[in-house]
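Re: that backbone. Tokens:
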């Protein structure tokens, strides 16, 4: 077995791992290794915005599914987890949303995570962001991550925004600004009509640095411990086994499934569970793999009055024309993330911030598991953004190649199901507003005349993950916390977790932007730098509780 020595070993080349690799290697006096189990993002599908439609069907993913979900009549759901450089940022729908300021204030005030309030994390969102339209209290204009307005939105998208206003949502030009509630166009992680993943935005420009080593196709099998200190990791690359020693720290960035999985395979986690699968306990840490949270997605699908969406573009002649249009003009169907418009609103009238998110899909059958209807269709997804259900990640065996047991416990709390169904009702009502009458012929699913029982059956069968797992190595100080507010694992030295698994509670939107923020903030912590100054807003007027950003 060969050995290599670095100052920092980063395990997982995803949304936060690429950020850490780029930031830490800014110092020429330190050496950094970034280890990714997946391959390179060489296929054009990774860079063309519309390539997302292929990604949810299994390209560049681990191929995992959940255990049977009791709250969904025992269904096992496909659970896409990225296996490629750039991680989720290389395969997602490119929607750039951060959630609500209350999400982060609750991390600080409710969960005791000092330094993680909204005012304190906002500077890291801004540092990451190269926004083509906004540069103000809430946005940065010169960061590495390209953020732009949609290029591939069809006229039905504007009609949807008018319909949502007719239903009662106010127009919102910036979901990441002062106010989250409302409807409008999403900002997207795109630059020059190409996906702006962290692999492209952060890693590619710096990969030639002599102090940075990037390993792909290399799976970390376990963390090497020297008593209570993480000394490095053991890596398999084909048949080659290598030990990467970390003189400073091991940094886990393998995501909310991968990070707890690797910890448990290394004997770090709940002792009883580790013993049950034949793993020697190195460090009893009960919270590893617990507190799993994710968003459940429902949808209503309607038939259009004509070719108002991208359904049918996959016909071979249209695909060729769309490809030529993209390469010649950077316009047309290939520039579409397919989910360019949406909104945030309330399912629970007593909520102090929006708890529902909507995504308009410019077609049907866009994602794996969602029906593709005859003719031209349009989909409106509704997501309950503040779930109370909590699940787990556990090991099936002591073998690193075995798939983990992923149990999000979807709708384990009846409140989540109730709110999800309310959100679906709102989505159906929006699609029936006058502004869409020239575009939408009728509702196909669940069907306009469906009874309450039929809608519930439909929801049970169509519900899917929004691909937003978080929380399984949560930050905090209670008995189930895995890391402290500096992201150091409780009871161990030389190791931190720096990805979405550290969230004590899920943010109320897509999770990629917050994961990048975590990577940015973690990079300063690892380097021992002072945190960026908290934001002081130019306008500090008292705001209504339902108007907080």
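Recovered sequence:
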């Amino acid at each position: 077995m060969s050995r290599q020595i670095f100052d920092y070993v980063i395990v997982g080349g995803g949304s936060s791992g690429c950020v850490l690799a780029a930031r830490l290697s800014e110092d020429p006096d330190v050496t950094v290794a970034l280890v990714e189990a997946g391959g390179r993002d060489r296929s054009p599908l990774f860079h063309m915005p519309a390539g997302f439609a292929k990604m949810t069907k299994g390209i560049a993913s681990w191929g995992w599914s959940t255990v049977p979900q009791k709250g969904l009549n025992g269904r096992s759901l496909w659970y896409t987890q990225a296996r490629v450089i750039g991680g989720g940022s290389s395969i997602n729908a490119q929607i750039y949303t951060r959630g609500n300021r209350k999400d982060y204030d609750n991390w600080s005030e409710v969960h005791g995570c000092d330094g993680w309030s909204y005012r304190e994390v906002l500077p890291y969102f801004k540092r990451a962001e190269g926004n083509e339209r906004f540069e103000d209290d809430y946005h940065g204009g010169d960061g590495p991550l390209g953020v732009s307005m949609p290029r591939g939105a069809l006229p039905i998208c504007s009609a949807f925004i008018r319909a949502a206003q007719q239903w009662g949502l106010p127009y919102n030009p910036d979901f990441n600004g002062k106010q989250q509630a409302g409807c409008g166009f999403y900002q997207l992680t795109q630059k020059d009509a190409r996906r702006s993943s962290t692999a492209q935005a952060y890693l590619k420009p710096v990969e030639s640095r002599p102090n940075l080593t990037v390993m792909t196709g290399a799976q970390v099998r376990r963390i090497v411990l020297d008593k209570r200190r993480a000394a490095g990791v053991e890596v398999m690359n084909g048949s080659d086994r290598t030990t990467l020693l970390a003189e400073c720290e091991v940094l886990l960035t393998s995501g909310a499934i991968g990070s707890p999985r690797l910890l448990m395979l290394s004997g770090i986690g709940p002792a009883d569970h580790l013993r049950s699968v034949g793993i020697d306990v190195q460090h009893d840490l009960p919270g590893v793999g617990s507190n799993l949270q994710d968003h459940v997605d429902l949808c209503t699908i309607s038939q259009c009055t004509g070719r108002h969406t991208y359904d049918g573009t996959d016909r071979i002649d249209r695909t060729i024309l769309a490809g030529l249009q993209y390469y010649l003009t950077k316009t047309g169907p290939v520039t579409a993330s397919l989910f360019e418009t949406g909104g945030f609103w309330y399912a629970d009238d007593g909520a102090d911030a929006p708890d529902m998110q909507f995504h308009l899909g410019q077609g049907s059958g866009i994602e794996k598991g969602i029906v593709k209807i005859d003719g031209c269709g349009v989909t409106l997804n509704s997501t309950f953004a503040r779930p109370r259900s909590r699940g787990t990640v556990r090991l099936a065996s002591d073998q690193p190649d075995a798939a983990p047991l992923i149990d999000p416990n979807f709708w384990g709390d009846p409140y989540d199901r109730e709110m999800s169904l309310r959100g679906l009702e709102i989505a159906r009502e929006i699609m029936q507003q006058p502004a869409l009458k020239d575009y939408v012929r009728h509702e196909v699913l669940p069907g306009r005349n469906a009874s309450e029982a039929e809608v519930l059956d439909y929801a049970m069968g169509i519900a899917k993950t929004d691909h937003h797992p978080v929380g399984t190595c949560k930050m905090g100080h209670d008995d189930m916390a895995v890391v402290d507010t500096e992201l150091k694992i409780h009871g161990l030295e030389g190791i931190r977790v720096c990805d979405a698994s550290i969230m004590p509670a899920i943010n109320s939107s897509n999770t990629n932007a917050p994961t990048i923020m975590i990577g940015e903030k973690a990079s300063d912590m690892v380097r021992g730098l002072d945190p960026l100054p908290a934001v002081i807003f130019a306008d500090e007027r008292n705001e209504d509780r339902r108007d907080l950003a």
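Residues 541-549 have pLDDT under 50 and may be disordered. Residues 41 and 85 are 6 Å apart (CA to CA).
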